Amino acid sequence: xxxxxxxxxxxxxxxxxxxxxxxxxxxxxxxxxxxxxxxxxxxxxxxxxxxxxxxxxxxxxxxxxxxxxxxxxxxxxxxxxxxxxxxxxxxxxxxxxxxxxxxxxxxxxxxxxxxxxxxxxxxxxxxxxxxxxxxxxxxxxxxxxxxxxxxxxxxxxxxxxxxxxxxxxxxxxxxxxxxxxxxxxxxxxxxxxxxxxxxxxxxxxxxxxxxxxxxxxxxxxxxxxxxxxxxxxxxxxxxxxxxxxxxxxxxxxxxxxxxxxxxxxxxxxxxxxxxxxxxxxxxxxxxxxxxxxxxxxxxxxxxxxxxxxxxxxxxxxxxxxxxxxxxx
Length: 328
Known about the structure:
- The chain has helices at 129-132, 176-179, 223-251, 280-284, 288-296, 300-309, 312-327; strands at 23-27, 30-33, 41-42, 48-50, 72-73, 76-79, 82-83, 93-95, 105-106, 121-123, 138-141, 148-152, 183-187, 195-200, 206-207, 212-213, 255-262, 270-278.
- The chain is α+β, with helices and mostly antiparallel strands.
- Strands 1, 2, 8, 13 and 14 form a 5-stranded antiparallel sheet that branches.
- The termini are far apart.
């Protein structure tokens, strides 16, 4: 493991996590991340095929859509609550290879977020709630023990209302999950294998010239790649903390299922089903010991940031109305 501290990248909109270097080099041909905390899980190949906690599954399906579409969302097809198709906007993620990818360069995504234009929600770490609640509704989605927070980016399938034709991100805060692209962590095939740094080879940001190099002439990771490994590592750690937070809410009986009703102008009503939010009534009557625990752990603020974010549902509806008006 490297011990040198390199600051995590900051974007024009949205702060980065504090840097804490945890990535290490396993061999001359692969980069691994040392923590045993899963974001993505590889099965028979190196391509990640299981969603991270926070995938939304059926929850973003509108009620007026036909039954077949009700089993899909833009993130993939779910069977038994598990995604078996795509990984949000990652089309062909493969382990980063020091030899095969030595000449690749990546154009920073800060000016082109077109890759996320068809994604209507992304996983969100609880540490992002304070910034994210200014722009997005934060809800909990998933099934069973895989319930986790997501930021709603759109109200219809395959539509991100924060990206317009210019492919810019029209929001003050860009979620970390989006900023990680085209990189992602994945676990190898072995049960106890380390996490691999993967890259989406289908990303339009990848080029042979221009942009930032992944490796230096001596074969070592470039500063650009190291900064992104930092970000991946920190996001993974924050997602573990987020899962603990979500499980505490669930164990305390604070989560309730809701259906978000939205009526866009000039079109059929939309009903987003399978979502969960914190039940304010139960929160107010929660026993003192559990309430104090949330407070001491620094999680009570996250709860209220989540609740405050729900007003953004109407703002999303207005964004949809503006898009529909332009298309008319």
